[in-house]
Amino acid sequence: MLYNPYPLLESALLESDPDAKCRAAAELFEKLAAAGGVGKPAAAALDFRFAGRPQKPILVAPADVQKRKMSTTEGYAAMLHAICHIEFNAINLALDAAYRFRNLPEAFTADWIRVAKEEAYHFSLMRGRLNAYGFDYGDFEAHNHLWDMAYKTAFDPLLRMALVPRVLEARGLDVTPAIRAKVAQRGDEATCAVLDIIYRDEVGHVQIGNHWYHYLCARRGLEPVALFRTLIARYDLFIFRGYVNIEARERAGFSRFELEMLEDFEQSLKAAPKTGSWQQALSR
Ligand SMILES: [Fe+2]
Fold this sequence. Notes:
There is one protein chain. The protein has helices spanning 6-14, 18-34, 73-100, 106-132, 145-152, 157-185, 189-220, 224-234, 246-251, 256-271, 278-283; strands at residues 2-3, 37-38. Helices cover 67% and strands 1% of the residues. It has one domain (2-39, 57-282): Ferritin (Up-down Bundle), CATH 1.20.1260. The protein has 284 residues and is mainly alpha-helical. Helix 1 (6-14) packs antiparallel against helix 3 (73-100) and helix 5 (145-152) runs antiparallel to helix 6. It is built from 11 helices and 2 strands; from the N terminus they run E-H-H-E-H-H-H-H-H-H-H-H-H. The chain has a two-stranded parallel sheet with strand order 1-2.
């Protein structure tokens, strides 16, 4: 029997209570696994501007998120909270991909429902670690950069796959080893174990994004490496700033060739004189 996941995807996406959202993500995965496939309705997805989220954390601009020293308990908890917030957004991003992009093979829908279930698990585990230090999700401010990028790429699954899993989620692969080292230094083995689960699963999530990015490029007759460079430049994004985890990115489906090309390209962008900027146009 086919399972139509769209009503539950919609209510899970709009759900503002984190526990209920996590339960819905797990239920979607179980129902789909028990069914013989995805039943696709004729109705189109609704274009929600915002996904469901609790009233707290208070959202501020990325630059306004207060920086705290990790040496204090509060600062350490703020770092755990930031990871919690990323995982919470990742649930919404995965639900949104499965809900919104309907004219794709059912493996796409199944992949993103599985990702949503895993992100819900990560969120619950990390929230548990935050609770262990006497704090909860919502106790610190946060920014909405991840969801904003989801909305900016909502009109095209190729753009979404290119810029969310391949840029933003892949960035998690770069930063997690350093965070884990700091957590280990503090002797917090329980959080290290959670970070290990997150890191392992995120390689798979970026891999899913890579797979569907290449699938959509092939279907449209587009050259994936050149297109990605164009998108990176056009959306003012970057890959090579700070440490880049080549080994994990290769496991997640980036080729060494593409990564080397990207590094060269970004260096050439940095070195190039900024001709044609609006400041220059005004000063002429
Ligand atoms: Fe995650």
